[in-house]
Amino acid sequence: MLRNVNLLRLFGNAFIILILAYGVLVYYVFGVQYGTRAPDQSLPFKIHLGFFNAFGILFLISFFQTIISDPGKVPLFWGFFLDDPDHKRRRYCLICHIFKPERCHHCSACNRCVLNMDHHCPWLNNCIGFYNRKFFLLLLTYAILAKFDITIVYFMDWFNLARELLSSSDAVYPWNSAYLMMICYPLNCVMFVVLITFFKFHIQLIIDNMTTIEYMDKKRGPEARHEAINYDMGFYYNFIQIFGKNPWLWAFPIFLRSGGPVGDGVVWPQKPSRGQTYEMEMSNRDLSLNRDTPTENNTLGTKGEASNP
């Protein structure tokens, strides 16, 4: 499902242009200057180039899919029908003038409510929600794989080049490529560490079946943690809520018919919170005590029966 937005305005965003420019620079340095033009054209190096190009292509597809995909809209007339249950009317957006399903939040940047909103990403000029969270996670995955590949394969090239430049000897490669290599490789390593940290956080969110907003709400204090709703249904179900049931499509930024997220983004299965569990235990305890404790009528009846010959 595509966003209803002007593409020229969408891709005119400065952050998107910056990411694309950085991607072109990285590919020029490591894919062209030190890839196809490198003196080492052995079979392992060609295999590396194949994986590097595959990661780059999948990254670009995930990148554009995340940008142009609609993160999820609230169903039309949700909660406005007379026979709708009360749980549909628990939350109301005063800006959009609609009832909000659970895990739905209003984005001030997009000026709309988003299903299962994780966060608004200014680098992608879009919200991350129910229908594009898979693309966002794949974007991070392929960016990390490409940067890991660069970090491992080109370390010795960068090290030798740095040593040659510091010793003022003639560089193996043209000076323009040498300077670009000296700048881009450390920058790549820094971005690799940053993305790994960010990716680790989002993997933990998948394990706990949480969004960034829910995580921040939970961190507010003990009262918020006590009242937080637990959507964790086990790792597999948490995973397919984002990536779908078809394992052949998990690694690709497409949905098709069987690769979409499980559910509708509106109704979510959940486990009772600690407070609800405690109330249920106390209620069950009271019921069991009421059954075990004889009432006054039962006591009189018992006595009457005992007094009869």
Put the structure in a nutshell:
With 309 residues, this protein is mainly alpha-helical. It has 11 helices and 6 strands.
Report on the architecture of this protein.
The chain is mainly alpha-helical and 309 residues long. It has eleven helices and six strands. It has helices spanning 7-11, 14-36, 43-68, 133-153, 155-166, 175-208, 212-218, 222-227, 235-243, 274-292, 296-307, and strands spanning 92-93, 98-99, 105-107, 112-114, 119-121, 126-128. The strands form three sheets. Strands 1-2 form a two-stranded antiparallel ribbon. A hairpin with a 4-residue loop joins strand 5 and strand 6 (126-128). Helix 2 runs antiparallel to helix 3 (43-68), helix 4 crosses helix 6 (175-208) and helix 5 (155-166) packs antiparallel against helix 6 (175-208). The longest helix is centred in the middle third of the chain and has 34 residues, at 175-208. The protein is elongated.
Chart the SSEs and their pairings:
Elements: H1 7-11, H2 14-36, H3 43-68, E1 92-93, E2 98-99, E3 105-107, E4 112-114, E5 119-121, E6 126-128, H4 133-153, H5 155-166, H6 175-208, H7 212-218, H8 222-227, H9 235-243, H10 274-292, H11 296-307
Antiparallel strand pairs: 1-2, 3-4, 5-6
